[in-house]
Amino acid sequence: MIDVTKITHTPAFVLEYELLKKNLSVIEQLQKELPVSFLFALKGFAMYAVFPELASVATGATASSLNEALLASPYFNEIHAYAPVYQKNEFETIASMATHITFNSVSQLETYRNRSGNAKLGLRINAMYSTVSTAMYDPCSYGSRLGILPKDLPLLPEGVSGLHSHNLCESGAQELANTLASIETHWGHLLGKIEWLNLGGGHLVTREGYDLDLFKKTIRDFHERHPHIKLILEPGAAFVWETGYLVSEILDIVENGGIKTLMLDTSFAAHMPDCLEMPYSPNVVGAQLEENGAYRLGGSSCLAGDWVGTYTFAKKPKIGDRLILCDMMHYTMVKTTMFNGIALPDIGIYHDGEYNVVKTFGFDEYQRRLS
């Protein structure tokens, strides 16, 4: 666990380096044992200060935009591109870096196939299996704009060598097994014709309690049935699951109607929007999430709903205390905004008991985003 007294400035995203290396070792071992490749998805985590470590384990990276491709290409040997729609003025630059390009529709494929260079081409399919209870995060919900339905793709278009599916979100091995079963049921007519199948993200293989035995069996069994297909996973979270924190200071404590709120120097709306979107309340070191806890955590923006909780603390919190919000690496830094002009948190690495700031933000970033 990090020593908060060594954090020079808050709020700060703090990566605990040893925990990152632990996750990477799990993924590295799985790739050695199984006929599967792990890509690193930038959409969940784009801290390029540790891209060399990630690239030493991942077989490549997944980019969903030109900016992500530009950020990843100096570090990763393979760049797999996928976007729901490609920007017309960006596509050819993406294609110049990409080894694989996946299209969300046959229409997009036809628009760009002759401008894709030497990249292998793929199509995103609907796995026809929903696992996510929050509709906002469910690519297989009714009317989804993501992926082609089986009835709309009876034949594999010329030049397409692979299929891409993404329907999981921080899911377990059983959901992976069910996904592959659904794909074989609904897309069996194309599996004999493809070279690769990308199952997207959501495979939380580094989470404590994840059924790695079932994961291994599922991958091996699929390979036995389809030995010609290269199986690819592209988790954004598994590489950095529970590897870091957001450290914040209590600036004030307010009370209304018997509800006490710890006013922090960070914002859930601006710095941790997933907490409000999903929604969920992060674990806090030294505190317990309880339905009728004594304290809410309040953000520093003027949004009325910029709060989460409630918590019971082992030790009564006071102004000036620092809180450690757990598992704040994935889908946090990549989603931050400067709403209200609130400065972005520092980004730092805690390694061998020492803290090093790798990025700070100020007025320049705010001004550059506006006109």
TrEMBL record:
Query: Cross-referenced Pfam families, in alphabetical order?
Result: Orn_DAP_Arg_deC
- Which keywords does UniProt give here? Decarboxylase, Lyase, Pyridoxal phosphate, Spermidine biosynthesis
Source organism (scientific name)? Sphaerochaeta halotolerans
Q: Which reaction does it catalyse?
A: carboxyspermidine + H(+) = spermidine + CO2; carboxynorspermidine + H(+) = norspermidine + CO2
The primary gene name is nspC
Which NCBIfam families is this protein grouped with? nspC
Q: What is its EC number?
A: 4.1.1.96
Which residues does substrate bind?
Answer: D274
Protein name per UniProt: Carboxynorspermidine/carboxyspermidine decarboxylase
Domain Orn/DAP/Arg decarboxylase 2 C-terminal, first and last residues per copy = 170-328
Any GO BP: nor-spermidine biosynthetic process
Cofactor dependence is on: pyridoxal 5'-phosphate
Which terms in the Gene Ontology molecular function aspect does this entry carry?
A: diaminopimelate decarboxylase activity
PANTHER family attached here?
CARBOXYNORSPERMIDINE_CARBOXYSPERMIDINE DECARBOXYLASE, DIAMINOPIMELATE DECARBOXYLASE
**Per the similarity annotation, which family is this?**
Belongs to the Orn/Lys/Arg decarboxylase class-II family. NspC subfamily.
